[in-house]
Model the fold of this input.
Amino acid sequence: MKPAASHSALLAAVFTCLLPLLGFAAQSTPPAPASPPTPSVAPAPAPAASQTPRRPQLSPREQETDLGLTGPANPNLPSIILVGDSTVRNGHGKGSDGLWGWGAPIADLFDPTKVNVVNRAIGGLSSHSYISAGHWDLALEIIKPGDFVLIQFGHNDGGVNLPGAAPIPDQGLPPGATPPTPRAGMPRGPNARGSLPGTGDETLEVENQFTHKTELVHTFGWYLRKYIADVRAKGATPILCSLVPRKIWVDGHIRRNTETYRGWTQSVAEEEHVPFVDLNEIIARRYDALGEAAVDPLFGDPHTHTTWAGAVLNAEAVVAGLRALPGHPFDKYLSDKGRAIPPYKA
Done:
């Protein structure tokens, strides 16, 4: 029994000696990676993958450079200068998302050895904001005697009304339709880029909900008269075009804008004795003849912006209207393709 007891004592002694070593080993063993400590304040969320840093505000000239707007290819030739919105030149003018304005294909309908076609239209602008944003001043820099300036607005001019006046129905909706709910985060209030309805001399001070600056807004007709006066002062010829129609069918026909922008454009053209190309009616007649099924592929969105095929149809309508003007001032500038288009007959 004594050997057993001494053996037990020896084991106890060994165990006692090993305890400190075991503790040291435990302390020297690298701990498993731990989660980072929770900060006292939640970190700012990382930007979404699609989010891009906000670009600094560009000057009007820088904006036009970014959009790819240019002057006449040959300054020694007369120019046909186009001023308008995205139905004339969509985005950068390169067919993004399959959308084109009629100012792109119309170049093929004129002879570049006889005349320049200069597309200065900018998407999203109205008769008012094309001027207030500084783009009209830049267009005037390249207009010279003998040039022609085609002016087409109306799609972005709604949304501003005199207090107490009945609002103009949304031109992008079928009669009786309910306007869609604005996107989240969109500023509420008048459409600061728009113009007052009509052709009178009324004015209204409107706060731009984006810049928070107050602007004096005039009527649609007032802005058209300003374009006309400025072009004439340059020795050039202004030509008013009614807005191209949207793809909105009413009782089997494309809706015309006779009571609003089409009618107001025609009224100013008659009062100021300037040429008028009624694109709203010329193109609407083409659509009516084609029918809904054939017209659908001409649009790349629900009702406003055209595909290349739709832009070609609209460009041909412009040339048909120009060929119908008294004295036929454009016939000598047409290409073979342009001469193949017959003048419009009302």
Notes: The first strand starts at residue 79 and ends at 84. The domain at 60-158+221-339 is CATH 3.40.50.1110 (Rossmann fold). Strands lie at 79-84, 116-119, 148-152, 204-207, 214-217, 237-241, 249-250, 253-254, 276-277. The longest helix spans residues 2-28.
